[in-house]
Amino acid sequence: MPARLIISRARPVDVAAATDLFVAYQAFYKVEADAAKTRAFVSDRLRLNDTIFLIARYEDTPTHKGVGFAQMMPKLSSTAMRRNWVLNDLFVAPEHRRRGIATAIMNECLAFAKRTGATKMSLKTQAANDAARALYEREGWGLDEEFVTYSRGV
Hints:
By secondary structure, this protein is an alpha+beta fold. The chain has a single domain (5-138), classed as Gcn5-related N-acetyltransferase (GNAT) (Aminopeptidase, 3-Layer(aba) Sandwich), CATH 3.40.630.30. It is built from four helices and five strands, in the order βααβββαβα. The protein has helices at residues 15-28, 35-48, 101-115, 130-138; strands spanning 5-9, 52-58, 68-77, 82-92, 121-123. The chain has a five-stranded mixed beta sheet with strand order 1-2-3-4-5, with helices on both faces. It is globular and about 45 Å long. The chain starts with a strand and ends in a 16-residue tail after the last helix. The relative contact order is 0.14. The mean pLDDT is 91.
């Protein structure tokens, strides 16, 4: 029987596992990672609790290893006057894909958002990321056709 998947909020003790996954996530997006800066960034998130960083592991996985993660960031809704969540990062290590881990992580993110009284959760992905888009659509996420997103470097 396969080991049980455990998804929990990462703590400062999880910085090594979270950093390894984050570096792999950066590589997926073709971002050249600086391991020390990445570790500092992840460590700050876990220490300051300014984002929700979930880490997925199999029950029999060592604590310094993870198989996937998500990072959610709070966003305030002016019209609903409540907090919403942005699923900013979602990643499953390539050797663990196609096992339902991303779906399980997303479900945990949605459960967290519901527990915190959010009105909605949003996410963005690259237009060319067909696998992610198919997953999101299969899981009931709808493409926003009401608002257009603009961005500009500063």
